[in-house]
What does this fold into?
Amino acid sequence: MLDLMKIFNHGNRSKDIARERLKLVLVHDRANVSPQFLEMLKSEIIKVISNYIEIQDDELDIQVTRTRSDEGDRVVPALIANIPIRNMKNAGK
Amino acid sequence: MSEVIVITSGKGGVGKTTSTANIGTGLALIGKKVVLIDADIGLRNLDVVMGLENRIVYDLVDVVEGACRLKQALIKDKRYDGLYLLPAAQTKDKTAVNPEQMLNLCNDLREEFDYILIDCPAGIEQGFKNAIAGADRAIVVTTPEVSAVRDADRIIGLLEANELRNPLLLINRVKMDMVKRGDMMTIDDIIDILAVDLIGVVPDDENIIISTNRGEPVVSDMKSRAGQAYRNITRRVMGEQVPIIDLDIEKGFMDKLRKLFGIKA
It folds into this structure.
């Protein structure tokens, strides 16, 4: 019975909440740059990419985070941008 | 070849001093020559955890100020061959020492010792900068709580900014029953979030408090699970490959029953 309850409670386990809250707060902590800097970066990226591709600029997500290097032997800062594409303009022409 | 290792965490109360005492004692038990430096000036504690509080004459600040010779300030632990303590000053504050002095001190100690372990104060200010100045490697201590993991992340960033690459993570006070219930983050959760390598996991164990009460590091208690965890960490510090122990050894009656009936816990 206890195990059945566990299955139903799966998404609600306090450790999952801790994990998600931590991940969110660390995105901010690690972005050791001012919000203005990120905004400037964001608008420049939009400007350049928009010349080639039609993007959903209100959905653009930019984060400074940390990841393992390709060699896997050290941790390096990383800029991760999620840019949803609305339409490929005259791509490749 | 000697090595200077700083034990740090950011957050207070996660077990830096206990870990320093136990890893240091563990290394001495294997036959290494070890000195423990308490860098927590003004709030010294490594002396009481080690049970050496009654033998302090000179301290770290006396050494850097030249009030005594380095040898005079080192307290020899009579129980463990090759183990020494350099206590912090209790009546001064963190500004009594600067990073350059700490670096020189570490280099002087390299002549005599195989391992120099530095117990870093909590925080990210002057005391932290002093403690990491002479270090080759860092061990970051955390517990499976959001506040401790967040601070560990900050410390890892600061260590890397100070050219101390690839710090190793020690996860302390893991409660297996809570992990199984889904009420405590798992080792994998924490490793995934912090993206660093693991040096070891120490289970929550009452023996830590009992041994600290007596001033005897738990690593010398062959029956304690925390002691076993610290003995394994000690061997990993020396570069040996030791698998992470299964913290789930003492299964309860209900678990055995479940297993009997083939129910997954």
